[in-house]
Design brief:
The complex is a heterodimer of chains A (229) and B (187). By secondary structure, chain A is of the alpha+beta class. Chain A is built from nine helices and seven strands, in the order ααααααβααββαββββ. In chain B, α2 packs across α3. Classes of the chains: A alpha+beta (229), B mainly alpha (187).
């Protein structure tokens, strides 16, 4: 190992040794949650083995309740969500999204490892990351924000479980502006991921990217932010 | 029990018996260091804290497997366990896909022996954390935690040659980061 690496190692280990104590409460809370979950799993197993009939009845009841729920026409459940509940899909301000879009296509190495891996993958397959004229959603980033705001539906289950976060979705803008190969680059939760992916896949055609005035394929990444107020 | 005076062996055996106080002392003594290890591997503070908790819990469950052999062996055991949990977690999150070989990093990068002394340790940790995950993992395992290329190759499912070349790129990237930092802070 080279000398600077030995020093690196020494300094890091020295630093590690001297770190102050960490607060224990969050650890004990987590341990308790784990133990309760394990206990619940064990007792559930015991009960399930003993009462198959009761379980079957319960299941039928639950399923019929679900059916009743899904019979609501989509329009009214949508307006319910907007008018009555306090939760909202919050899209960042213009400035935030602009910065994010710039950041996600630039040399932001190391900010997010999955993203970097995918970028290195893609380079082999002929989609550029940075070109002279970057692709653009028709109408610009404010129009993109508007589109996301209108199109995203906060998944009910995620809403009731208070799951929020920012999903990064990467895709290719083809030479004709169509959107292909959407991929979740930074995941938050399967429900949110799926919705983010759906919305990106449904985007209308973009203005394609250009090098020396000729169109080319470009890989682009955008954030879809789910925030509960 | 004056917990801070308990020897490593005593502490470990009390943890085997699930003594709450002993477990608390284990956490108090080692959590911060193990957190630093996790942060080195995962590169994200929240994930590192989660992982550290998980590996502490695992340690308390498996402490029966610890065999004392000298001062500091408890920490070494905990650290090995934590590194393994970190690598498993990285693999689970599929962040260890093979990075394609490229020769663009072959040029010589200027370096001076005492450069590293001029950088605060927390900044060094951040530099490691900001490497892309495959490079970060190989650098951590080889340069800090002393695994061989063979062991690294087995742990993360790549070839030994791949490990060596990824190490070279990680060194180059860190060297560049160090030089940039020194330039930015006018040194």
């Amino acid at each position: 190992m080279k000398q600077w690496e030995d020093k690196f190692k020494e300094r890091l280990e020295d630093y590690e040794m001297k770190l102050p104590s960490m607060d224990q409460q969050s650890f004990w809370d987590r341990k308790a949650v784990r133990e309760r979950a394990a206990k619940r799993r064990r007792s559930f197993l015991a009960v399930a083995v003993g009462v198959p009939a009761a379980a079957a009845i319960l299941l039928t009841v639950i399923m019929s309740i679900n059916l009743l729920n899904t019979n609501n026409p989509p329009a009214s459940s949508q307006s319910n969500y907007v008018a009555q509940t306090p939760t909202v899909v919050e899209i960042e301000s213009d400035a935030d999204i602009q910065e994010d879009i710039l950041a996600s296509t630039g040399d932001y190495v190391g900010e997010n490892e999955e993203w970097v891996e995918i970028i290195e993958d893609r380079e082999e397959k002929g989609a550029y990351l940075v070109v002279e004229e970057m692709p653009e959603f028709k109408g610009g980033s404010s129009a993109l924000m508007e589109y996301l705001r209108n199109e995203v539906v906060y998944p009910d289950q995620a809403k009731s479980d208070s799951i929020q976060g920012r999903v990064l979705v990467s895709f290719i803008v083809e030479t004709d502006g169509s959107i292909t190969n959407p991929k979740v680059v930074k995941s938050v939760n399967p429900l949110l991921d799926a919705e983010a992916l759906r919305v990106v896949s449904a985007m209308p055609k973009w203005n394609p990217g250009k090098i020396n005035d000729s169109v080319c394929r470009v890989r682009f990444t955008i954030p879809v932010n789910f925030r509960i107020k | 029990m004056r917990t801070s005076l308990v020897s490593e062996q005593d502490l470990a055996s009390r943890c085997v018996l699930k003594d709450r106080e002993a477990q608390g002392e284990l956490y108090a003594r080692y959590a911060a260091r193990l957190y630093a290890v996790c942060f080195r591997y995962l590169g994200d503070k929240e994930e590192a804290q989660d992982l550290m908790h998980d590996s502490m819990i695992k340690a308390m469950d498996c402490i029966g497997q610890f065999r004392f052999n000298g001062e500091g062996s408890l920490y070494s055991w905990l650290r090995r366990l934590t590194v393994n949990v970190a690598i498993d977690r990285l693999r689970e999150m599929s962040r260890l896909r093979m990075v394609p070989l490229d020769s663009s990093m072959d040029s010589v990068i200027p370096e001076q022996d005492d450069d590293v002394d001029k950088i605060p340790a927390s900044v060094m940790l951040d530099m490691v954390a900001s490497l892309p995950s495959v490079r970060r993992t190989v650098f951590n395992m080889y340069c800090i935690d002393g695994y061989s290329h063979k062991e690294i190759a087995q742990a993360i499912n790549i070839t030994e040659k791949g490990s060596a070349s990824i190490l070279a790129k990680s060194r180059a990237q860190l060297r560049n980061a160090i030089n940039d930092y020194l330039k930015r802070t006018g040194q």
